[in-house]
Amino acid sequence: MSIKGKAYMVGVYEHPLRDIPHLSTAQVHAEVAKGALEDAGLSFSDVDAYFCAGDAPGFGAMSMADYMGLKLKHMDSTETGGSSYIVHAGHAAEAIAAGKCKVALITLAGRPIGSRAGLGDAATRGERFRMAPQGGQGGGINEVPEAGFENIWGGTTHNTYGMCAMRHMYEYGTTSEQLAWIKVAASHHAQWNEHAMLRDVVTVEEVVNSPMIADPLHRMDCCVISDGGGAVIMAAPEVAKSLKRPLVKVIGHGEAPKGPRGGQKLDLTYSGAVWSGPPAWEESGVKPADIKYASIYDSFTITVLMQLEDLGFCKKGEGGKFVADGNLISGVGRLPFNTDGGGLCNNHPTNRGGITKIIEAVRQARGEAHPKVQVPNCDLVIAHGTGGSLGTRHGAGTLIMERE
Amino acid sequence: MTDVQERPSVRRVPAPSQNLESKPFWDAAKQGRFLIKRCTACKEPHWYPRSMCPFCNSTDTVWEESKGEGVIYTFSVMRRNTPVPYAIGYVTLDEGVSLLTNFVDCDFDHLKIGQRVKLKWTPTGEGQPPVFTFTPA
Predict the structure, then answer these.
(1) Which residue out of A29, A67, A266, A393 would a mutagenesis test of the B interface target, given it has the greatest number of B Cβ atoms within 10 Å?
(2) Which residues are CB-contacts of A303 (< 8 A; sequence separation ≥ 6)?
(3) Model's pTM, two decimal places?
(4) What ipTM was reported for this prediction?
C-alpha cells in the first residue's frame, strides 16, 4: 500500500507567543490544536487520531486525549525528539491511507522559558524566577494536567483495578469465585511451561483464600512481577513467503484510549476494548465465535473478564459465567486463553505483558505451543492488551491473526 | 481540621502538585472553598477542572463552588504493602461529575457503593493546600 496522494495537510497553526508564563503546558497544546482545527474548518469532534511526543504532559497520548475530550480510533506517541512530528505526519498518512482514521491531530507545545515564572503572581506579569523546588512532601509544579487531582490518593495498579472489580461486582453480580477461575485456568496452562514462575495448579478455594491485597482482589488475582522481555518480527508477504516458517498474517487491528471522560459518565465496568475491538473484527471479517485461541492481557483476573466481555466473547456482565468451570482451559473449555500461563503465572516482563501476548498467540497459530495446551487446527487467534490503568487512563490494542 | 501528621494510623496525603491551570482551585481550597468547572457554552460541569471544556471544547469555562456532596461510585481498600490501610475510590458529586479521592474518618469495612458522602478537607502540610477527602454523610 502506498500513501501517495492518500492524505492532505488541511490545517496549520503556530502559537503566536514566545514566552508563555501564564498558561499550563496542557493549555498550550489545546490552544494550538484549536487553532489548527479552526484553520481547517474542523472541530475537535472531527478528530479521530492524535499524535504527540514527549513534550505532551502525561502518559503517552492518553492524558492529552482525555484533556481535550478526544474520541479516538488511532493514537501515536512515537518519540524521536525534534523530528517526532515529521514522523507523526508519516504515521498519520499511513493510518489515513489504511482507513484507520480520517482526521489526524498532531501537537507540539512546551514552556521552557515561561515555566520559570512558576505559579506566582509573576506568572501573569511575565517576570521570571526559579520554580519552587519539588520535595518529598509533595507539592511543586507538575504539568501533567490531572496529576495534582489524582496522584495524591495512593492509587496503585492493585487498588485502581480493584475499584473496577468492585463496581463490576456491584452492577453484574460478578463473584470472587468467578474471577478465581481465570487464575485457575492460567495455572493449568503454566504447569506445562518450564519457564513459568508459578507452575502449581491452584483451585478456586486457594485463590479466594489467598490474602486480600486491595478489595476485592486477592493475591492470586494479581499477576507476577518479573524481569524478561520479547520481540516480534513482521515482514512483507513476499519476505514471509520466502522463509520457512508457518505463515501467520495480521488480519485485523484496533486501538483506543479510555479515560474518566471529564468526570461524566464514569464507567469502570468496561475497558477500551469496546472501541478497539469492533474495528479489528470488522477489518478481519471474523467474529469472536470463530476465534480458536485468545491471548488476553492478565494484569489481574478482572482485566481478563472485562476484556472478554468488551471484545464480544460473551454479553456484557456475563463474563463471570463465561470464565467459570474451566471455560478458558485448553482442551476443556470453549476459549483457551494464555496457554503460556500468562501474566498470572508465567511472566510480566518489566510490568508490561503485551509482547508475550502476541508471542503465545503466534505459537498457537503455528502449532508450536506446548503439546499439552496446543489448540487443534488453531488457524484464528487474537491478542488483546490494556496498558496503563483500567481505573483511570488506559490504552487498548487488539490484534487478530490468521494462519494461512 | 485534623492534623493527620500527628496520627500515624492514618495515611498521610501528600501536598498536591499544581500548575497555572489548577492554581485557582488550590488557592480556593486554602480558603475552604471546593470548586468544580462548568462550561458556559454547553452548561456541562466537568472534572478534573480544565480551561477547555472536554465535552464541547469551548474555552468559556468558569469556576463554580460545589457543596462537595455525593455518592460512592466505587472504592478499594489497600491492605498490603502500605504502613496503614487506606480507601481509594470515586465519588459522583450531586453535580454529576466523578472524582478520585480517599475516604477518611470511617470504618473501611462498612463502605458501600451508593453510600452518601460529604467533603472533608484534609491538611497536607504547612503552607500547602488541604485536599478534598470524603467521609460518610
Answers:
(1) A266
(2) A161, A271, A296, A297, A386, A390
(3) 0.90
(4) 0.90
